[in-house]
Each structure stands twice: as structure tokens, then as C-alpha cells.
Amino acid sequence: MDRRQFIRQSTAALGTLTSAEAALAATEQQEAAGSGSAAGKIGRPVRAVSIGFRPAPSLEQIAALVDKEGALGVDLIALPETFRGQSDRSLETLDGPTITALAPLAEKHRTYIVAPIDRKDGGKRLNSAVILDRRGRIAGVYDKIYPFWVQEFAKHPPVQPGQNVTVISTDFGRLGVAICFDVNWAPLWQRLSDFGAELVVWPSAYSAGKTLQARAIDFSYYIMSATHTPDCLVFDIDGEQLLHETANAGEFNITRFTFDLDRCIFHQDLNRPDKIGRLLKERGDDVAEEKWLPMEGVFVLKAKRPGVSARALARQYGLEERRPYLNRSRTQVDQARGWQFS
After folding, report:
1. Tens of pLDDT, residues 39-50
2. CATH 3.60.110.10 correct for 3-260
3. How many CB atoms lie under 10 A from the CB of residue 115?
4. Cα–Cα distance measured from residue 268 to residue 309, given in angstroms and rounded to the nearest whole number
5. DSSP 201-233
6. Which tens digits make up the pLDDT trace of 297-313?
7. Can you tell me the distance from the alpha carbon of 68 to that of 65, in angstroms, rounded to the nearest whole number?
8. β-strands 199-204, 174-177: how paired?
9. CB–CB of 176/200 below 8 Å?
10. Cα–Cα distance measured from residue 23 to residue 322, given in angstroms and rounded to the nearest whole number
């Protein structure tokens, strides 16, 4: 079973906003693009902001904060789970006050915004994260697959579980979203990996800590939270905690972080020492081994100068990244068990 077959099968389990084939094609295009069109910049930088707060400020206050942060020049702004509350009065549609207020700001500052709302969809209530693109259009909607049933099923009407894992193609890479209680179910996060997520934004009521870190360790993508706590955790593609900021602006926590989506992680198997050794010997001015974790048997590569993609260069030298390697390994073991997939 090749990678395309693997992703096709993943679709049946939880689904996705876009087709698995489109997701795979977009991922491959992003990897091949490397540093993209960011002239003079090293790697594929993404400037992200997490704004955390308890669900109390007015929509006007939040819009003013988003406006202020957007004016600094960012690619992505993330807000916490149902940040306008989850009450009898907070239900709204996609053309309701929250998205109506934030969409013009996304367009004004040419930034993506992850805007969670208590969403009304016909007769259904959903805990949703709406992703706005740089033109203020809705690029995707993720509905929380695992509502916190103790509270959310008790609402009137009750919150309904979402059906689809969501990973969208942006102009900077593949963006995934999960919400709060979702953190407890690894298969959901596996699907985010299957569909090519490079950065996962996690709006939440609480921090999750090591549970969230485990998802980054297992699935090799960046994770950034925006919570009611309020705080922000950022985890690296190897699971290292890069940042934990808490309430750094009074009742708000505002965290700014720049990700490099061209950085890539590899297992030592079949890559070390020969392939990585040859790459670094011949192209050491272009790419660096930023991390080597011998206990975990993984290493991270990054570009050293503009116009170079560490990911594309590694591919040229025959290195296989950790995620596809583990998927391929599982397939080989399954075949040895006699499990054949068409």
C-alpha cells in the first residue's frame, strides 16, 4: 500500500474538508516549493499570533486586539475556543456578528484568522473554528469532533459532534485545527498528519500541557494553542516545548511566534549516517543539521540561506521524512501479517 492508498483509506475513518487526493497533492507542492515566494527569507517562515483570554471581553475589544496585532504584519492569528461564550445568547451563524467583524480585518491586514464560534447550522449547534483567509473569505470550518459531553451535551440545544478532520491549504502551508477535548484522541491527530498538516492550531479552554506535547512528538508537526487560561504553548516538530507564555498583558495573553515550515524531521533509519553525511558534506553551506536526538533516533534539518529548501534538498539526496517513513513501515509490517490492502 503506497502513501496515496494510505491517505485514501484514512478518509473513510474520520473524513476531511477536502479530498485526500487534493490534500496529498497540495502537501507535495508545498514541500517542493520550499522557501516559496518569500524573497530573502530563510526557510518558509510563518508569523503567528495567539491571543488567549477568558470569554468575557466584548467583540469590539477582541476586534481591536486583532486589528492591532494584524497591523504588525502577521500570517496567522488564533483565538480561543468559543471565545464569545457558549450560552443561550451566543449561538450564531457563519454570517453572524463574529465573522462579520473579523473578516474585514483578515482582508485589511492580509492575514489568516482562526475564529472559534458557538455555531448555529440549521437546527444543529456546533463548536466550530472558522478559518478566514487573507481576503476575509471562509477558507474552512472545523467542527469539534469530541465535545466535552458533560457540559456541551447539557446545552439547549446540545452541541453536536463534528464529523470531519480539517486540514486546509494556505499560501504558507498545510494548516490543521483541533479543539480542546479533541486532544485526548490520538486517531484524530493521526488524521491531521495523514492529510499533511504542518502546523496545528488548538483553540481550547484549558492548557493540556504534556498531552498536547505528546501529539507533537507522535506526529511531527508544530502545535500552537490559544486558550481561556489564558496561555499559549508552542511545540516543535520533535515535541520540544518551545514556549509557554501566560497572561502577559493583564487579562490577555498575546504570544507572537515565527514558525519555519521548511524545517523537517527524519528518523535515523536508512538516513544515517550515509545519506545525511553526504548531504552535509556536499551542501553544508545550504542546509544544517539543527538537532540530533540520539535517544529518540531523530534529527532535524533546516535551510541556512535564502532560496534553499531543506526539505526539497533532503529529497534530492534520498532522505525520507519521519512521517512517511513510519507510514511505510506500518504498511510493510501489515503486509507481513498477511493484511493486503487494495
Report:
1. 689 999 999 999
2. yes
3. 26
4. 20
5. EEEESS--THHHHHHHHHH--EEEEEESSSEEE
6. 999 999 999 999 999 99
7. 5
8. parallel
9. yes
10. 18
